[in-house]
Amino acid sequence: DVKVTQSSRYLVKRTGEKVFLECVQDMDHENMFWYRQDPGLGLRLIYFSYDVKMKEKGDIPEGYSVSREKKERFSLILESASTNQTSMYLCASSQTGPGETQYFGPGTRLLVL
Amino acid sequence: DAKTTQPPSMDCAEGRAANLPCNHSTISGNEYVYWYRQIHSQGPQYIIHGLKNNETNEMASLIITEDRKSSTLILPHATLRDTAVYYCIVYNYGQNFVFGPGTRLSVLP
After folding, report:
1. Residue A97 has what pLDDT?
2. Whole-angstrom Cα distance, residue A89 to residue B14?
3. In sequence order, what DSSP letters do the residues of A42-73 get, joined into one string?
4. Tens digit of pLDDT for each residue in A51-65?
C-alpha cells in the first residue's frame, strides 16, 4: 500500500514563527504536492514538485516555500506564520504518467495564534 | 474551477447501494474521471478512476455514460463508515487535480 506520512497531525504556532511541515512517501513517486483545505474553499494547491530539487507554484503559493532535497521528502515552509494560514494542510504523491493517481497523507491541522 | 457538478448532499440507508452522480459535460477525450472521498478530519482517500469503460474494485463501481458527460459512483452496500464527502474530479496528465465541493453522503442506520 502507498503510504504518505506527515510529521504532525496537529500544530499550534504563534504569528511570525517559522513553520516546517514535513511529508514523506514510501512508494518512490516522482511527484509530490502540498494543498491547504479550508471550509467552503475546497482543496487548493500551494506547490508541487515533479523531481528532486524541482518545484512549481500552484494556485496559492504566496507566504509559502518548499524544499525537495530527497525524492521521498517534500517540505512546506511558512517563513513567517500568519493567522490566515490557519488551515488543514494535505500532502500528496503520485507516479508520473497518464491517469496518475494522487495519494494523500492524513493532513496537518495548523493553528496560528 | 472544478469541471464537475455534484449534488451537495445525499442520504442512503445502511446496507443499501449508494449511487452518487457527477456531471462533467465538458470532459475531453483524454481526461480521466476520478473519485475520492474524505472522512472528517482525514486526508482524501482514492476510490476509483476510469477513462471510458466501467470500472470496479473492492471499494466501488464506476459507471461512465457512453458520451462520457456524466458518471455514477456506486457503493454496493453502504455502511456507516462510508459517511464522507465524495469528490468527482476530471483530470489529465499534466494538469492539476481540482477538488470541487463534492457530495456529502450520510449513511443512515
Report:
1. 66
2. 32
3. EEEEEEEESSTT--EE-S--TT-EEEEEETTE
4. 998 999 999 999 999
Nearest chain B CA: its distance from A23 CA (Å): 13
Q: Are residues B48 and B88 in contact, defined by beta-carbon separation less than 8 angstroms?
A: no
Q: Which H helix or E strand runs over B90?
A: strand B84-91
Contact (CB, 8 A) for B17 and B75: yes
Sign of torsion, CA A40 B92 B6 A105? Answer: negative
Q: Which of A88, A97, A103 has its CB closest to that of B93? A: A97
Interface membership of B13 toward A (CB under 8 Å): no
Nearest-Cα distance to chain B for A78, in Å, is: 20
Q: Do B96 and A45 touch (CB under 8 A)?
A: yes
Interface check for A60 against chain B (CB to CB < 8 A): the answer is no
Instruction: Give strand pairing partners of A34.
Output: A47, A91
Answer yes or no: is pLDDT of A96 > 90.
no
Grid coordinates standing for B32? 480521466
As a whole number of angstroms, the distance between CA B86 and CA B100 comes to 10
